[in-house]
Design brief:
Length: 155
């Protein structure tokens, strides 16, 4: 595709003056042209949206598809800017803290549950062998003891 550099510069300047006139597909083309010509490209920043997305995605252990992550115009050509990277990283840390807190609260609830206390009370007064058999009821399966009568009859 051959395009006159003067027309390309005019297109880039027009985009920088009012980016709302252009679709996302057009913005991708303008960003590629600006990178080739070394001209500035006014990019929008979606740091706040990326922060929220990464916080929720990390808290839900990555269950939200990455195709729903917000992308700013020109990101495909220039990559994320500093504030978008910072927002995404901070969102991930917040999500990690949220999921860690949830896991801690759930674990504390399990440890303090009445069912676990009943098991502890019931096992306190029993011998270790009784407790071991309750924990593994299939322990003696396969242990066959032959009596002299079994041997005599060919078993």
């Amino acid at each position: 595709m051959n395009i006159d550099p003067t027309r390309a510069m005019m297109l880039i300047q027009d985009y920088n003056n009012d980016p709302r006139k252009y679709s996302d597909k057009d913005a991708l083309l303008v960003s590629a042209l600006s990178k080739q010509l070394g001209m500035p490209f006014e990019r929008e920043s979606k740091a706040g949206r990326k922060f929220l997305f990464d916080a929720v995605d990390t808290a839900l252990l990555g269950m939200i598809p990455n195709s729903l992550r917000p992308k700013s115009r020109g990101e495909e050509v220039y990559g994320e800017n500093f504030f978008e990277k910072l927002g995404g990283g901070a969102g991930s840390l917040l999500g990690l803290a949220t999921s860690g807190t949830g896991a801690f609260i759930a674990g504390r609830g399990i440890v303090r549950s009445p069912a676990l206390r009943n098991v502890a009370k019931n096992t306190k007064n029993r011998s270790i062998d009784t407790v071991r058999n309750q924990l593994n009821p299939f322990e003696n399966i396969g242990n066959i003891r032959l009596t002299p009568d079994d041997v005599r009859f060919g078993l």
